[in-house]
Amino acid sequence: MTVLVTGGAGYIGSHMVLALVDAGERVVVVDDLSTGFRSAVPAGVALVEGDFGDQALVERVIAEHAVDAIAHFAAKIVVPDSVADPLGYYLNNTAKARNLIESAVRAGVERFIFSSTAAVYGETDAGLVTEDRPLKPVSPYGRSKLMVEWMLEDAGVAHGLRSVVLRYFNVAGADPKGRAGQSTRNATHLIKVAVQTALGRRERMQIYGDDYPTPDGTCLRDYIQVTDLAQAHMDALRHLRGGGASLTCNVGYARGYSVKEVVEVVRRVSGVDVEAVMSPRRPGDPAAIVASNDRIRAELGWVPRHDDLDAIVGQALDWERRLHNREGD
Ligand SMILES: NC(=O)c1ccc[n+]([C@@H]2O[C@H](COP(=O)([O-])OP(=O)(O)OC[C@H]3O[C@@H](n4cnc5c(N)ncnc54)[C@H](O)[C@@H]3O)[C@@H](O)[C@H]2O)c1
Ligand SMILES: O=c1ccn([C@@H]2O[C@H](COP(=O)(O)OP(=O)(O)O[C@H]3O[C@H](CO)[C@@H](O)[C@H](O)[C@H]3O)[C@@H](O)[C@H]2O)c(=O)[nH]1
């Protein structure tokens, strides 16, 4: 039995590949390396360079590797880019996911784990977001993912495909053993940008909007450590292999930090007085979004082990230093 990981050369997918290899699982990665890196796939793991929407390719991989489960990470992921290029996002994240789901059904793969996002909720009022909140995504990115959730639900009813949909909140940090991290070029994620600024890779950073209805006026987010997130997928895989029913779960720590608080943590942990310039709001950003994680704890037995923003920032700093030494990868 082999797990097919789409997007396994990317940031989060590569941590999932490590978790699978650490657990003794067989893995095959399909990745077109559009934002991922060959070097992120550990030696000994098969990397098929190609498009996950290419049904002939995917069905051949499923047959050749005896795939019994698919963990689908591959996507375009930048919220403001999705506002500028919605059709590109709907093609890659939605239309190609339709093909992949059809390939799973045709090839008899019955287990599917999907990387969804907190962006499916859109604006939320105060309090922790539970999975049954109304889904009103405010960006094409969020909509492109929500449609995949619906396809999985419908394919489950029609074809018996069982799925775990994981709605990640803001993913950050790196493998605590230093084997993987976020290598994304021109990254837009807050912690990565702040850490790069601390290390002098960027002169200054921007804080997008301080007039939100939040305690300090900047946006609140729930930062989930990437190894804890990979573990959620391992728990989901065990659930599906054990015959568990389809499920949708948030993955977050139920604790929000404002943009200003994150920048302060980066200043403290790095010892550098990062220059952060107040700027206008960025399109597509909801004011606050913090997860309830009761369901994933109860249904999948997920236990977070890395819920510590100082440590997350420390891992991101370590990885960024290492990346700099390896530039040209
Ligand atoms: N980073 C976050 O904070 C976050 C939060 C919520 C959800 N997610 C979701 O997690 C998943 C992984 O995100 P990431 O941060 O690791 O991004 P990433 O860009 O590092 O990884 C995406 C990977 O998918 C590959 N890819 C993209 N389109 C492809 C295609 N058509 N065919 C084959 N490969 C393709 C890229 O080359 C890359 O390796 C995405 O689905 C994203 O929507 C991320
Ligand atoms: O240089 C920066 C970068 C970000 N921000 C702010 O920081 C917050 C977090 O932004 P970012 O790290 O870009 O994450 P999000 O836009 O919240 O989106 C992330 O988190 C979502 C889930 O919540 C995922 O679906 C997306 O893929 C992922 O990019 C937002 O308020 C941004 O406006 C800044 O102020 N300055």
Automatic annotation (TrEMBL):
Residues 3-252 form the NAD-dependent epimerase/dehydratase domain. It catalyses: UDP-alpha-D-glucose = UDP-alpha-D-galactose. The keyword Zinc-finger does not apply. Its cofactor is NAD(+). CDD domains: UDP_G4E_1_SDR_e. GO terms for molecular function: UDP-glucose 4-epimerase activity. Homodimer. This is UDP-glucose 4-epimerase. It comes from Lichenibacterium minor.
